[in-house]
């Protein structure tokens, strides 16, 4: 292909691309509703259940508290006598859940606990499966009216038949070679 022909083809492709993009300008809103990014659920921190909080008793050591609740999310250098347990769950289409629990220590033993009312494990699991909105599934089949806009395809010229598939293998070689 000569250089002028390539330039002409390039100009034609640019004009065609501009026409296609101009035609899509009115459907931009519809396209943005159909094509949406995947939104992931974000879980941060330690989930603390009501059952775990009920197991805590004043006078427990730090290691005992850690075995029941897990490692605290925040341990402040300035407040070494308290541990912060914060749990956040953000899911698309559902209001974010945030729960906080603070464990206070006095002379390296647990003194008391303050924080939000914690759900039981079964209540928390039930909250995960409910309230999630189902996304609208787009129609995947064309209607007769939509298909009528396109010309019917010409019937293909019959050609040679494809070769028959090879019969399936009846036995397979051993996975390992025999040991000697």
TrEMBL record:
Subunit description: Part of the Bam complex.
Entry keyword annotation includes Lipoprotein: yes
Free-text function comment from the UniProt entry: Part of the outer membrane protein assembly complex, which is involved in assembly and insertion of beta-barrel proteins into the outer membrane.
Compartments reported by the entry: Cell outer membrane
Family: Belongs to the BamE family.
HAMAP family: OM_assembly_BamE
Species of the source: Alicycliphilus denitrificans (strain DSM 14773 / CIP 107495 / K601)
UniProt keywords, alphabetically: Cell outer membrane, Lipoprotein, Membrane, Palmitate, Signal
Biased composition (Pro residues): 159-171
Chain positions covered by the region annotation Disordered: 148-180
A cellular component annotation (GO) from this entry: Bam protein complex
Domain Outer membrane protein assembly factor BamE: 45-110
MF terms in GO: protein-macromolecule adaptor activity
GO biological process: Gram-negative-bacterium-type cell outer membrane assembly; protein insertion into membrane
Top-level taxon in the UniProt lineage: Bacteria
Identification of the protein by name: Outer membrane protein assembly factor BamE
Membrane topology of the entry: Lipid-anchor
InterPro entries in alphabetical order: BamE, BamE-like, BamE_dom
Gene: bamE
């Amino acid at each position: 292909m000569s250089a002028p022909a390539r330039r002409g083809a390039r100009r034609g492709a640019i004009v065609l691309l501009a026409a296609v993009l101009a035609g899509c300008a009115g459907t931009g809103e519809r396209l943005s509703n159909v094509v949406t990014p995947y939104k992931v659920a974000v879980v941060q921190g330690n989930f603390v259940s009501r059952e775990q909080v009920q197991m805590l008793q004043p006078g427990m050591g730090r290691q005992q508290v850690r075995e029941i609740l897990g490692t605290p999310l925040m341990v402040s250098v300035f407040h070494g006598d308290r541990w912060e347990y914060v749990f956040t769950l953000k899911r698309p289409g559902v209001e974010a859940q945030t729960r906080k629990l603070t464990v206070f220590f006095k002379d390296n033993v647990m003194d008391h606990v303050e924080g939000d009312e914690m759900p039981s494990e079964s209540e928390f699991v039930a909250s995960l499966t409910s309230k999630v909105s189902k996304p609208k599934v787009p129609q995947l089949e064309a209607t007769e009216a939509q298909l009528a806009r396109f010309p019917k395809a010409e019937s293909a010229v019959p050609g040679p038949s494809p070769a028959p598939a090879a019969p399936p293998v009846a036995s397979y070689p051993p996975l390992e070679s025999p040991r000697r």
